[in-house]
Amino acid sequence: MPTHIAHFDIDCCACLDATGQAIGPLPEFARDGGTLRALYGAMVRARAFDTKAIALQRTGRLGTYASCLGQEAVGVGVASAMEASDVLLPSFREHAAQLWRGVTPLELLLYWGGDERGSDFAGPRGDFPVCIPVGTQFPHAAGVALAISLSREPAVAVAVGGDGSTSKGDFYEAMNVVGLWRLPAVFVINNNQWAISVRRREQTAARTLAQKAIAAGIHGEQADGNDVIAVCDAVSRALARARGGEGGSLIECLSYRLGDHTTADDASRYREDEEVRKHWKEEPLTRLRAHLVAAHDWTKAEEEALLRGAATEMDGAAETYLATDAELPAAMFDHLHNTLPAALQAQRAEVDNA
Amino acid sequence: MPTHIAHFDIDCCACLDATGQAIGPLPEFARDGGTLRALYGAMVRARAFDTKAIALQRTGRLGTYASCLGQEAVGVGVASAMEASDVLLPSFREHAAQLWRGVTPLELLLYWGGDERGSDFAGPRGDFPVCIPVGTQFPHAAGVALAISLSREPAVAVAVGGDGSTSKGDFYEAMNVVGLWRLPAVFVINNNQWAISVRRREQTAARTLAQKAIAAGIHGEQADGNDVIAVCDAVSRALARARGGEGGSLIECLSYRLGDHTTADDASRYREDEEVRKHWKEEPLTRLRAHLVAAHDWTKAEEEALLRGAATEMDGAAETYLATDAELPAAMFDHLHNTLPAALQAQRAEVDNA
Amino acid sequence: MPELTLVEAVRAALGRAMEEDPSVIVFGEDVGIDGGVFRATDGLVQRYGFDRVRDTPLSEALIAGMAVGAAARGLRPVAEIQFMGFLYPAIDQLVNHASRLRTRTRGRLTCPMVLRAPYGGGIHAPEHHSESTEAMLAHIPGLRVVVPSSPARAYGLLLAAIRDPDPVVFLEPKRIYRALREPVADNGAALPLDTAFVLSEGADVTLVTWGAMVTEAMSAAAGLAEAGIGVEVIDLATLKPLDADTVLGSVRKTGRCVIVHEAALTAGLGGEVAALVAEHALTSLLAPVKRIAGYDTVMPLPRLEAHYLPTEARIGRAIEEAMAFA
Amino acid sequence: MPELTLVEAVRAALGRAMEEDPSVIVFGEDVGIDGGVFRATDGLVQRYGFDRVRDTPLSEALIAGMAVGAAARGLRPVAEIQFMGFLYPAIDQLVNHASRLRTRTRGRLTCPMVLRAPYGGGIHAPEHHSESTEAMLAHIPGLRVVVPSSPARAYGLLLAAIRDPDPVVFLEPKRIYRALREPVADNGAALPLDTAFVLSEGADVTLVTWGAMVTEAMSAAAGLAEAGIGVEVIDLATLKPLDADTVLGSVRKTGRCVIVHEAALTAGLGGEVAALVAEHALTSLLAPVKRIAGYDTVMPLPRLEAHYLPTEARIGRAIEEAMAFA
Ligand SMILES: Cc1ncc(C[n+]2csc(CCOP(=O)(O)OP(=O)(O)O)c2C)c(N)n1
Ligand SMILES: Cc1ncc(C[n+]2csc(CCOP(=O)(O)OP(=O)(O)O)c2C)c(N)n1
Ligand SMILES: [Mg+2]
Ligand SMILES: [Mg+2]
Questions:
Q1: How far apart are alpha carbons A208 and A210 in whole angstroms?
Q2: How large is the average pLDDT for residues C17-26?
Q3: Ligand 2 centre and the CA of D80: distance in Å?
Q4: Position D326 confidence tier, pLDDT thresholds 50, 70, 90
Q5: Could you tell me the distance, in angstroms and rounded to a whole number, from the CA of residue B193 to the centre of ligand 2?
Q6: Which among C129, C261, C280, C307 is annotated as catalytic?
Q7: Is residue A1 predicted with pLDDT exceeding 90?
Q8: A188: which strand partners?
Q9: Mapping DSSP to helix (H, G, I), strand (E, B) and coil, where does residue A110 land?
Q10: What 3 state SS string does chain C have?
Q11: B213 touches chain C (CB under 8 A)
Q12: Which of B211, B312, C175, C276 is the 20 to 30 Å CA partner of C45?
């Protein structure tokens, strides 16, 4: 007969409700107005970038682009919890995290505009470029974390994927080795409820995505992904555990994709505007602004200055991007190997002389 | 702040202890002496096959062979719980299950002797052949279960893998879709504590392998894999749930690999004989025999007849196997496609005329 | 007769196959309500229901492996990989199972599955969305690899692939999904597999290609016709098994062979075609064989993409060189 | 100088690399205490410890992806795939990441990793253990594919692969792991990558091959020497990038080219070699190019295996045909 041998719990971390009210005592860092202003500013900046990128794409001046609209709290929450010396391994939707980490709007525009130089970040030299093949960044994070642990650095590898990425074998294989070797890695899931047209509930029967951590024997936790404080808090605790040698974590952030999947997608084919309208009531910027106004006397003037500053920055980045010539065609050979093999020199010359 | 949102339990099913004593009330089927005699007979038969196969390999008359020594209760427990109309998708170590299902000793010897005809089972026509690439049978089981569910048959797909197979992405991806679509599939893990030289605890930090079911939102349960009654009971309940439309299950059977990984392996390189000796005290045949003697007056005569019968069967199978000529070389082309493409006829002729 | 684009022809063939055979099912990422990111499966779920048209989780290895299992159990799954750049996790199931299930069971279990994937470059797609690695698949014994190059061939070849009792990988050149329309009769008539198509006759040069490059090849041929050069354009269509007889017959006639594909040159399928010519038509050759292909470097992002892919100009120059050779 | 087998030479090179460079680590299935199923890593964990020599979980996609991440972070991982038949789940990481990390970041991140795998048939191994699909890997831009064919070359080429700043797949012909011994100085001297080796000079026929087939090729050449036929045997060694100059130079001299590999014929790397000859040495050819390869069918189980693999006899016949051609 069956006898009970093991039991597991999953928690969810939430700090602010949709109106910006604190649900309970806020974590230490979230009581400081300056910190909250920085977090809010970063989310506004990410949204300004998003708006600009979409405008450029709509006018044929940028390639297919994946908007992070409504998910700014995930990117900013994750990145703000990290140290500069940590390593970010983002999916294709975490512009907010990349911007906080020091990737420039110009670099992001170059990448999404079809120029490889956009992934040669001047800022976070150790961060990985955008990862398009879903879930393949998780094994990379395990490898980065392995290198970190062998060098005894205090750094942590932080990989971010979507709800869809939790269906990929790579995700499980990597999470399993992170647990096995107690590697300093944190896997964050931006559960925006959709994988293109596939709903979260059509992706897995698991009640939460956080519970998938149980399969790897690591810590799994949910966080309100519309609440930058909750995301930052959950990820900060995960980073502290990883740095303390307590191993990795899986953090599921509950957010919502307010926009189309990408500029090549038309979400009206598969979801009701009504559902989207509902979720606009929970989006992260309004919520934190309300809290700032109520608890840290955020002023209209500050708000306007912030918006203006962000818009100006993005206009400038766009101008520089549009003024940047493409590389010479032969550049396609110049970073294939450290030194171009003899066998390829004729091909390079052909391109050069075409 | 984190609040509790979900909780999960894992049970373990055990019926007989190592001495053959019932731990509690036995499941209905296990109170019938005839049934238990059949289960015991099947385990003895599997061990007789194993002994013969190893003898043939040692004398250069069989290829590399994976012994099921000590794991007979898993194969027999799983197969005896299944209906003939169910589909078995075995790993390379479940000879005991295949034999119960009607695959003949001759067919198994042909396969392990390097003859494809060994996988053309005369008996269970719908069962899959041995699966060598670890874990790749789980997606097949999902596909078989999908076909079954669309045809509204009462059948169930039963895939068996090892503890190592739970580290493969295929295992998780398949388990996830079984949960998502409530497919009639049961995944059984023969956790024999080793993946060649890699210990179970070096495979994953998960406390149990059964808990990996939580990642897919399906039922996960452990069973004592040295106790054929417990395995049959746990799998029977899983099959009943699957047939009843309640979806799939993951059953982890705790067994032990008493032999080398295969005849090409030398386990003394990486494990102590002492550990093996300890586990001989728990092996499944002794246990059930003790129970039969104590509870169902199993006699010395019955035991001897059984052993003699099994040995004779395997001697006969071996003789026929050794007397079976290899196929003609051109046979390598005859089942590549339904009809051999014109492009390949010259190659076939070349082999035929060589 | 309706004028269809290539992607509409794919959709028509899928609908026809599902209509005539209840064992045909379609699954993949976003193939349901969304109708596939290129709309190849648009409308199928409305007509045939959620049982037969399924959105899968985001798991390519599963998609291929589940197709193997379903096919072995008697269904005819037509599974979609959203882009060829995401097909790699499925290769294990193709090599180790789909292509050998019949052989390893000596015919007891079979694998009548089709794995569809849009492939190729030229549409300014994001990174990893312009893959063209058909040669890797064409190396796998037991697997058929089919690439249509026009709406009519897409319709007829996809029907043939679905009806074939063995596994087929069907690669759709997304660059020409909507580039041209042609009359396609949705009459259920399949085209033969394992057969190359001679698209234009010519006495001077044999031009072997497939997929989106057929368009470039045909315009190059048209251009050269004015210059009095007769180019025989052959669309391989079925890359594996390859119709060597048609290619060799043409080369024996023309004495010149130019091969065009957008995949990287080295170990691309053009090498196989050139090898067959060097083995079996050497004495007919009046000029060296020439391959025009993608370069042996990573397919660049959109800004440099056009410099990577073979162009009508490059093809034309190669043909002129072949003609000039003496 | 010690006489080593090929697998002992691999072990010596691994030890040397770990000795001279602390950033070299080894991981894979059973590479620790067990020393690898072929003993290629035997003794390494005792010498360099569990941090640098790690048994991984049974996850090939992870092994490749983790190597990419570790390499990008500054380590030099030498990862093992236990058999080539189980390498397929790793292809996604090789195509989409390892081979392009440098390109996509314009040199910011690099991937100095080596993925080792025993490959090839002829040892009566179980199903899926006799794979020889090097051509699939040789098609991937940005990847090096290296195959040693003797203990000395295994030692020198593996050291070169580990020291190379870019990703290398190193395929070890397990059929000759222990077939021959030769003196190998464990002096840390690497051999050049991207360079073919001329193993025997000859004026009549160029015989291009690699891996375990080199042994068959050399005995065929020896046999024909008695008949007065001079066979120039070339071991490609680095399959990608391929040393065309050495091959073409030899063919221009001999006028005849026979290519041998155990992988299936169609879309095998022999096609690439034949294509290069047909493109660049056509006018030197005195006879058609000829490929001797595995057949385009599934590698049979041991009982028929010998009928699938190229033999000295088949090679000899092909060479005689080439000589007889007029
Ligand atoms: C392996 C792989 N398969 C398919 C795709 C095509 N694709 C791009 S994004 C996407 C959905 C991803 O969903 P999710 O993981 O939830 O991330 P989100 O887009 O919602 O941020 C798909 C299917 C891909 N990029 N990679
Ligand atoms: C994908 C894959 N990788 C590696 C191997 C080589 N191999 C054969 S069995 C085995 C260990 C399997 O361990 P487990 O799953 O526990 O099954 P067991 O052998 O213990 O029955 C390995 C690594 C394989 N067959 N398939
Ligand atoms: Mg999502
Ligand atoms: Mg095991």
A1: 5
A2: 98
A3: 14
A4: confident
A5: 12
A6: C129
A7: no
A8: A160, A251
A9: helix
A10: CCEECHHHHHHHHHHHHHHHCCCEEEEECCCCCCCCCCCCCCCHHHHHHHHHEEECCCCHHHHHHHHHHHHHCCCEEEEECCCHHHCHHHHHHHHHHHCCHHHHCCCCCCCCCEEEEEECCCCCCCCCCCCCCHHHHHCCCCCEEECCCCHHHHHHHHHHHHHCCCCEEEEEEHHHCCCCCEECCCCCCCCCCCCCEEEECCCCEEEEECCCHHHHHHHHHHHHHHCCCCEEEEECCEEECCCHHHHHHHHHHHCCEEEEEEEECCCCHHHHHHHHHHHHCHHHCCCCCEEEEECCCCCCCHHHHHHHCCCHHHHHHHHHHHHHCC
A11: no
A12: C175
Q: Edge-to-edge strand order for the sheet containing D205-209? A: D197-200, D231-235, D205-209, D257-264, D290-294
Probe site for chain C from A61, A64, A130 (most C CB atoms < 10 A): A64
Residue type, A54: I
| Contact across the interface for C308 and A327, Cβ inside 8 Å | no
DSSP state of B102: T
Total length of chain D:
326
> What's the rounded Cα separation, in Å, for the pair D192 and D214?
19
Checking if the pLDDT of B174 tops 90, the result is: yes
Q: For ligand 2, atom 12, which residue shows the shortest CA distance?
A: B195
Q: Please state, in angstroms and as integers, the Cα–Cα distance from residue B204 to each residue in A8, B95, C112, D63, following that order.
A: 17, 26, 37, 15
For residue range A248-262, list pLDDT tens digits in order: 999 999 999 999 999
Beta strands in chain A (DSSP E): 2-13, 87-89, 157-162, 185-191, 194-195, 198-199, 219-224, 249-254
Q: Considering only CA atoms, give the Rg of chain D.
A: 19
Q: How far apart are CA C30 and CA C212, in angstroms?
A: 24
Contact between C303 and C321 under an 8 Å Cβ cutoff? The reply is no
Note whether D156 and D184 are within 8 A (CB): no
List the one residue out of A275, A252, A291 whose CA is nearest residue A74.
Answer: A252
Answer whether A134 sits within 8 Å of C127, measured CB to CB: no
Find residue D196's DSSP bridge partners: none
Ordered DSSP codes for A131-158: --STTTHHHHHHHHHHHHHHHT-S--EE
- C307 to chain B, any CB pair closer than 8 A? The answer is no
Q: For the CA atoms of B111, B116, B119, B125, what is the dihedral angle to 10 degrees?
A: -160
**Contact A225 CB / ligand 1 (< 6 Å):** no
Distances from the Cα of A38 to the Cαs of A33, A45, A303, A333, D170, in angstroms?
A: 9, 10, 12, 42, 50
Q: Which residue has the tokens 């991984």?
A: D56
Residue D128 annotated as catalytic = no
* Cβ–Cβ gap A170/D244 under 8 Å: no
Distance from residue C38's CA to the centre of ligand 1 (Å): 15
Closest ligand to C-alpha of residue B71 is 2
Which residue of chain D comes nearest to C265, CA vs CA? Answer: D139
Judge whether A7 counts as a catalytic residue.
no
From the list B181, B169, B246, the residue with the least C-alpha distance to B212 is B169
Q: Say yes or no to pLDDT of B1 above 90.
A: no
SS (H, E, C) B276-335: HHHHHCCCHHHHHHHHHHHHHCCCHHHHHHHHHHHHHHHHHHHHHHHHCCCCCCCHHHHC
In contact, B167 and B134? CB cutoff 8 Å:
no
Asked whether residue C326 carries a pLDDT value surpassing 90, the answer given is: no
By the CB < 8 Å criterion, does D110 face chain A?
Answer: yes
Q: Is the pLDDT of residue C169 over 90?
A: yes
Of ligand 1's listed atoms, the one at least distance from the Cα of A200 is 16
Picking from D25, D62, D71, the nearest residue to A139 by CB comes out as D62
Instruction: Compute the distance between CA of residue A119 and CA of residue D106 in angstroms, rounded to an integer.
Output: 7
A87 pairs with which residues across the strands?
Answer: A157
